[in-house]
Design a protein that fits this description.
The protein is mostly helical. It has five helices and no strands. The protein has helices at about 1-10, 10-15, 20-50, 60-90, 95-125. The longest helix is centred in the N-terminal third of the chain and has 32 residues, at about 20-50. The protein is elongated and about 65 Å long.
């Protein structure tokens, strides 16, 4: 990461790339930094996944497993997307396939975030169905 930090503000790099070089350099650094951080997030999410996915007897346990497993998956997807984005942002020209890959990865990862959030929401907000008589629902802690 130190190389990218130096390159982001290197005067020769600015002269070589042009007037937007500082912005491009910062984007390049942030892409690589985000890829690194997402990879670390994915690695940190693996132990809770192993713990929460050992027993899946109830729907609640399955949702808890889904929630942490989705954290691993979306962080790996975001890592790939940020690597692809850095390929485009760190080069002197726009790399169309890399930019496309980054965008697609972002969409897929975002959908996975929604799936994980839905599992967490169901576990946090589990309520009973409304009885046919119209009586209000009860909250299960």
């Amino acid at each position: 990461l130190a190389w990218f930090r130096r390159r982001a503000f290197d005067k020769e790099f600015v002269e070589l790339v042009g007037e937007n070089a500082e912005i491009d350099g910062v984007n390049c650094f942030l892409d690589v930094d985000q890829a690194y951080l997402r990879l670390m997030n994915a690695a940190a999410a693996i132990p809770p996944t192993i713990k929460n996915c050992q027993v899946q007897d109830t729907a609640r346990q399955k949702r808890a497993c889904s929630n942490v497993l989705n954290a691993v998956i979306y962080n790996f997807i975001f890592t790939g997307g940020m690597i692809a984005r850095s390929i485009s942002d760190c080069s002197r020209t726009i790399n169309g396939p890399a930019a496309c890959t980054a965008t697609i990865s972002g969409v897929i990862a975002a959908l996975d975030v929604v799936a994980g959030s839905a599992s967490a929401m169901l576990n946090s907000c589990e309520i009973t169905k409304i009885p046919p008589s119209g009586v209000t629902t009860t909250h299960k802690p």
